[in-house]
Hints:
Elements: H1 2-56, H2 75-87, H3 105-115, H4 127-140, H5 150-159, H6 166-182, H7 185-195, E1 197-199, E2 202-203, H8 205-213, H9 222-230, H10 245-260, H11 269-279, H12 304-307
Antiparallel strand pairs: 1-2
Helix pairs in contact: 3-9, 3-10, 5-6, 5-7, 9-10, 10-11
Amino acid sequence: MNCKGKAFRTLALFLLLIITFFRNFGMTLKFRLEEMKVFTRILLVFLLVIFLYLFVYPFFFDVKHLVNENPKTTALINYRIKQWEKQGKEFRMRQEWVPLQRISPYLVKAVLIAEDDKFFQHEGFDLEGIKVAMEKNLKKKEFKYGGSTISQQLAKNLFLTPRKSIVRKIHEAILTVRLEKSLSKRRILELYLNVAEWGNGIFGIEAASRYYFGKPASELSPWESALLASVLPKPLKYNPANPSPYVVNRANKILYIMQRRGIIQEEYADVEEATEDIVTNGELDENKDSTSASPVQSVSTSQDVLDSLESLPANSFTPVESESTLIQVESIGQELD
């Protein structure tokens, strides 16, 4: 009996231990399941916040008022002001709004050639330009070139900061779609030319024209227009009134394209010969010297240039495909800001 009693007590103790173990394990498992539920809820809330910030936040910006109203300021202007204040620099803002009709048609076309040659054909994004830029980046093994259209640049200038990030690019893309749906192409172009940065504290083509050339934007010549368009990718680095050889090369190429398209009529033999020498030698080089000077112009002004912008087909002049010796799409207006 004693042996049986001891065996029974041992068995009972063993069973009690097993019951206790599974009970505690069950409670631990239950606790862990509760923890997982809490963690899952937190994760879902976090993902929801990220989703809202990435894809919903851009819809809080008021775009439709731009149809008839000019913005009093822009995100880029505010960003520059904060930069100047942080650095303790004195600054002076120069900006004067002008309607598209009071901007030289040469300047308008020069900017389109330099920054977004298919502006009137695409719906905010130049897929071919992006492809060419990416191929260029892969070739050079660096992320130097982008494919931003004028609509994308306007979205960034109006609402975002110039800091590079994937988040900014997502916001920029959504805002670009909204701008394209809400505004006409001419209005987008008008806004862009009035808010674009053209130097330290210089915003808009009217302020740039008066500051660099002492004249209103309506009186800009083809050469002055080409110079102003050439510095747009890096307006804080280059000066159109005192152009570097790199800027002169770019301006000559833009001017040459304008002449080839019949936008300007002028004595162009010397410039054409000099420009062909430049472009047939390959890509633009910021350190490369320029052997060509500004052309002697004998232009016939035409208001029809501005009126015909929208009717120009996208393939009226395709630099890479049809005229590979002229100007590379990725070397004008495609550098990342």
